[in-house]
């Protein structure tokens, strides 16, 4: 049962969190691809491996350069699964969601029963706002008798965006039973509470995620967002600037400020939290 003020917070938090939940979905649905190769100075293949953190820390120009290099390789053979998966991931992180989805649609036609392809296709659909088809793709990729924690977390992230937090959280807990302490799942669980307007519980899970081994900068940026939404902007800015180059840190802080501005300013949210 929500009070009027918490409903207002949920509405604003939802607008803020959809982008971030989609971002975390990229980590949640990443599978394991073989046949890694060098393309344009970076390794293609496993989105879930070391490349993910490299891509996550890229600046805008670096992402554009990687997309251009991968694009040239991709056009030579659109059915090359490792290249297509990495290209779609780079496109998505560059904000080119329609193009990413087009790449994944073609790959899903070529590999209609491939779990990794279906999972990445679900990610691309969710990023493009096609949540029901995304849910179907992720569920088709899952093997009930041997569930993949990444797919459970991905399904949860989609259900959260569809307004089904109880189902989503049950899936996150199932994923954590399989992979205890996994930061991407803990962060998605925190995001679930952010979407519901429960910022304090969201912060608890986000802090656990940020402290977990393997946590990347995206997890810490989500922690910064939750802290900023509670009015502690100095603390949020300090977290947003960690482990990044000065240029990337400034871009992250600018982005954080713009996200908070969508909520009529973080100070208004802080006042409502105190009165709720």
Automatic annotation (TrEMBL):
<keyword id="KW-0802">TPR repeat</keyword>
<protein>
    <submittedName>
        <fullName>Tetratricopeptide repeat protein</fullName>
    </submittedName>
</protein>
<feature type="signal peptide">
    <location>
        <begin position="1"/>
        <end position="26"/>
    </location>
</feature>
<dbReference type="InterPro" id="IPR052384">
    <property type="entry name" value="TMTC_O-mannosyltransferase"/>
</dbReference>
<dbReference type="Pfam" id="PF14559">
    <property type="entry name" value="TPR_19"/>
</dbReference>
<feature type="repeat" description="TPR">
    <location>
        <begin position="149"/>
        <end position="182"/>
    </location>
</feature>
<keyword id="KW-0732">Signal</keyword>
<dbReference type="InterPro" id="IPR014596">
    <property type="entry name" value="UCP035836"/>
</dbReference>
<dbReference type="InterPro" id="IPR011990">
    <property type="entry name" value="TPR-like_helical_dom_sf"/>
</dbReference>
<dbReference type="InterPro" id="IPR019734">
    <property type="entry name" value="TPR_rpt"/>
</dbReference>
């Amino acid at each position: 049962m929500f009070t009027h003020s918490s409903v207002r917070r949920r509405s604003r938090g939802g607008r803020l969190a959809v982008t971030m939940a989609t971002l975390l979905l990229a980590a949640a649905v990443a599978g394991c691809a073989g046949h890694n190769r060098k393309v344009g100075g970076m390794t293609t293949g496993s989105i879930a491996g070391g490349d993910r953190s490299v891509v996550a820390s890229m600046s805008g120009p670096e992402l554009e350069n990687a997309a251009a290099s991968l694009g040239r390789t991709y056009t030579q053979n659109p059915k090359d699964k490792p290249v297509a998966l990495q290209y779609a991931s780079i496109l998505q992180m560059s904000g080119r969601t329609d193009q990413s989805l087009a790449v994944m649609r073609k790959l899903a036609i070529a590999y209609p029963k491939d779990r990794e392809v279906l999972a990445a296709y679900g990610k691309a659909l969710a990023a493009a706002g096609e949540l029901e088809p995304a849910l179907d793709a992720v569920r088709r990729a899952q093997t009930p008798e041997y569930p993949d924690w990444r797919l459970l977390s991905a399904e949860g992230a989609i259900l959260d965006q569809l307004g089904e937090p109880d189902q989503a959280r049950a899936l996150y807990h199932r994923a954590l039973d399989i992979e205890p302490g996994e930061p991407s799942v803990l962060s998605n669980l925190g995001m679930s509470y952010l979407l519901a307007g429960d910022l304090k519980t969201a912060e608890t899970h986000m802090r656990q995620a940020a402290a977990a081994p393997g946590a990347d900068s995206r997890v810490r940026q989500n922690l910064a967002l939750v802290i900023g939404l509670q009015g502690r902007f100095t603390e949020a800015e300090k977290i947003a600037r960690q482990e990044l180059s000065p240029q990337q840190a400034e871009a992250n802080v600018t982005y954080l400020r713009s996200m908070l501005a969508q909520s009529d300013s973080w100070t208004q949210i802080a006042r409502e939290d105190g009165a709720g």
